[in-house]
């Protein structure tokens, strides 16, 4: 032990005496200037023309029109494109992918996949989110026993490539989890997948366990769809109180109006899904500043889904009915003044890269009447604000992390095509996608 301490002290002195000389010589080579033809100002929801972004190491240090660029500086020329803050997917399950034609995808995952294979597959999916322009995700459970914390660490240390992750660990939930039909004698299989709480004391300790093992946010199920049990308001109140004590936000899976109302009454910060919410509950959400993460399906993905399951009836009316319900709920939420935060909830195999399938959530919102710049705000600044990170994520300004993407096309008038045409992805100052020669 003593030997280790001596070694650490030597290392500390070595670093403190050598850092300044390294920093000086590397400084200029680590400065990059991005010329943005158009720049999305996510804080104000506006497009700005001909801006320059100065990046030093992993941070943005200056944004403006009149920044002088030294002659030998490294320049990335994005004058033909629109530069946006890196997108944030507020609801992912990187460690889960269900085959629609598998009768028991849960059993497949919980009984046969195993942790090692599951994280390896998750790391491939993580890369696909980044390559599609999501530089940050909020991963909300279905990730075994803190496998999300492991993947986050691997990404942060550079072992695998992926977006920044904010993770919840297992979902905190009442008896039965979300596994319908599970025999009581096999209930132990859900103990690693969920944190099951039986009473208020359990709920309090569940939060301590999650904080201890590295959760950034607490995810609960106000109701356990597709199972029909639920947490009580008192259990949820105890979770919220404990989570807020550790400065963690609480977000609740809640599908019907009662579950949403109970979760909001208990004091949660976010509602996931909220497929059926009454105007009264939406008004309460707006009053308490609770955000809504609508995890809706776009029309192209709906058609794809019905193709995969070989749906025999007429697809159009089925899709129209579902889309009308989504749209009605989304528009009423916006009218009530509820903040919308983007979340794909993509855990289905749509036979395409999962990050691309996830991108469809932006298209879904456009189909339901949201304006492109509002969708982009929900996918950047407002999502970061929900995590109290709006000074450094979801925004391009001095002091923020150098997380940004560039898209080709007219983002306002041709949104659905342009948002998929990503030519450039930078995360933490490093370039991960560069489709054309953008160096000058
Ligand atoms: Zn989900």
Structure description:
By secondary structure, the protein is an alpha/beta fold. It has two domains: 29-85 and 396-434, Urease, subunit C, domain 1; 87-386, Metal-dependent hydrolases (TIM Barrel, Alpha-Beta Barrel). Helices cover 40% and strands 22% of the residues. It contains 15 helices and 16 strands. The strands form four sheets. Strands 3-2-1-4-14-15-16 form a seven-stranded mixed β-sheet, with no helix packed on it. Strands 10-11-12-13 form a four-stranded parallel β-sheet. Strand 12, helix 9 (279-288) and strand 13 (291-293) form a beta-alpha-beta unit. The longest helix has 26 residues, at 2-27. The protein is globular. The termini are far apart. Residues 91, 93, 140, 345 line the site of zinc ion.
What separation lies between the terminal Cα atoms? 53 Å
Ions, cofactors and other ligands present here are: zinc ion
Total strands: 16
Rg on CA atoms, Å: 23 Å
- What's the CATH class label of the largest domain? Alpha Beta
Our count of domains comes out at 2
Helix-strand category: alpha/beta
Shape descriptor: globular
Q: Total helix count?
A: 15
Low-confidence stretches: 16-27
- Helical amount: 40-55%
CATH topology of the largest domain: TIM Barrel
Largest sheet, spatial ordering of strands: 3-2-1-4-14-15-16
Largest sheet: 7 strands, mixed
**CATH level 4 superfamily of the largest domain:** Metal-dependent hydrolases
User: Per DSSP, what share of the residues sits in E-state strands of 2 or more residues?
Assistant: 15-25%
Compute the average pLDDT.
93
CATH architecture of the largest domain: Alpha-Beta Barrel
């Amino acid at each position: 032990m003593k030997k280790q301490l001596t070694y650490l002290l030597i290392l500390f002195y070595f670093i403190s005496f050598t850092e300044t000389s390294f920093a000086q010589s590397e400084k200029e080579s680590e400065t990059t200037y991005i010329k943005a033809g158009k720049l999305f100002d996510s804080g104000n929801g506006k497009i700005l023309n001909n801006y320059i972004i100065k990046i030093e190491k992993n941070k943005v240090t200056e944004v403006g029109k009149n920044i002088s660029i030294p002659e030998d500086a490294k320049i990335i020329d994005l004058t033909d494109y629109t530069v946006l803050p890196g997108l944030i997917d507020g609801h992912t399950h990187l460690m889960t992918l269900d085959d629609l034609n598998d009768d028991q995808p849960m059993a497949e995952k919980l009984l046969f996949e195993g942790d090692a294979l599951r994280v390896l597959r998750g790391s491939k999916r993580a890369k696909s989110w980044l390559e599609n322009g999501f530089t940050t995700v909020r991963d909300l459970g279905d990730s075994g026993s803190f496998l999300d914390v492991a993947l986050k660490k691997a990404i942060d240390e550079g072992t695998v490539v992926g977006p920044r992750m904010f993770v919840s660990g297992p979902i905190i939930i009442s008896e039965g989890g979300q596994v319908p039909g599970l025999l009581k004698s096999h209930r132990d299989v859900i103990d690693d997948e969920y944190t099951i709480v039986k009473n208020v004391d359990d709920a309090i300790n569940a939060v301590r366990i999650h904080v201890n093992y590295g959760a950034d946010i607490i995810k609960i199920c106000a109701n356990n769809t597709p199972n029909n049990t639920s947490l009580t308001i008192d259990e949820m109140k105890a979770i919220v109180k404990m989570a807020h004590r550790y400065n963690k936000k609480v977000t609740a899976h809640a599908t019907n109006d009662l579950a949403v109302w109970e979760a909001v009454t208990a004091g949660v910060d976010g509602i996931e899904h909220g497929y059926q919410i009454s105007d009264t509950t939406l008004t309460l959400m707006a009053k308490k500043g609770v955000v809504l993460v609508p995890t809706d399906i776009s029309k192209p993905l709906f058609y794809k889904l019905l193709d995969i399951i070989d749906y025999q009836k007429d697809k159009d009316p089925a899709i129209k009915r579902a889309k009308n319900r989504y749209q009605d709920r989304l528009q009423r939420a916006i009218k009530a003044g509820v903040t919308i935060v983007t979340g794909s909830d993509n855990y289905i195999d749509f036979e395409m890269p999962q990050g691309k399938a996830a991108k469809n959530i932006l298209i879904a919102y456009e189909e339901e009447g949201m304006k492109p710049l509002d969708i982009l705000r929900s996918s950047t600044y407002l999502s970061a604000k929900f995590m109290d990170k709006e000074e450094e994520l979801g925004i391009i300004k001095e002091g923020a992390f150098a997380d940004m993407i560039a898209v080709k096309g007219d983002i306002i008038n041709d949104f659905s095509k342009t948002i998929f045409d990503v030519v450039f992805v930078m995360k933490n100052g490093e370039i991960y996608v560069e489709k054309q020669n953008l160096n000058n």
